[in-house]
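chain below, 156 aa
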Amino acid sequence: MHDVASPEPVSLTDEAMLARFLRTKNQPTGSQTLGFRMKAVDQAQKRVEVEFDAKAELLCNPMKQIQGGYLCAMLDECMSVACMVASGMTAVAPTLEMKTSFLRPAMPGMLLGVGRVLKWGRTVAFTEGELFDAEGRLLAKATGTAIPTPFKTYKS
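prediction:
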């Protein structure tokens, strides 16, 4: 495992960090498929809010509901991005494991995801994510663990 001490203070405000997410031109294709759009950043709380534009033609199962695997991917995205924010944008956090509970069917349309870092350790981060429909009803909830890894590890 990579040793990543507690993140150093960030010089970006929450608003500046949000603007950085919103202006990125190289959003991963998986995020694009899920309809990912960052909505809010709270560095002090290690929390993010994300919108997902869940398109029926891309994400639905035969029952015309969003397939559970895509909901897991949305939750994973929320928790991973919360880790990036908690690191002050110095690390990614590959998921070691996650547990997901599905509470009600998710229908196509706008979904709100909330990701949090519950504990940032030297080698492991503990995370939580929730997905809500447009009416604010909780659809799914996940917990996970991740390995914070400095961005520089991935650069050649």
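The chain is about 25% helix and 35% strand. The first helix runs from residue 14 to 23.
thats it, cya
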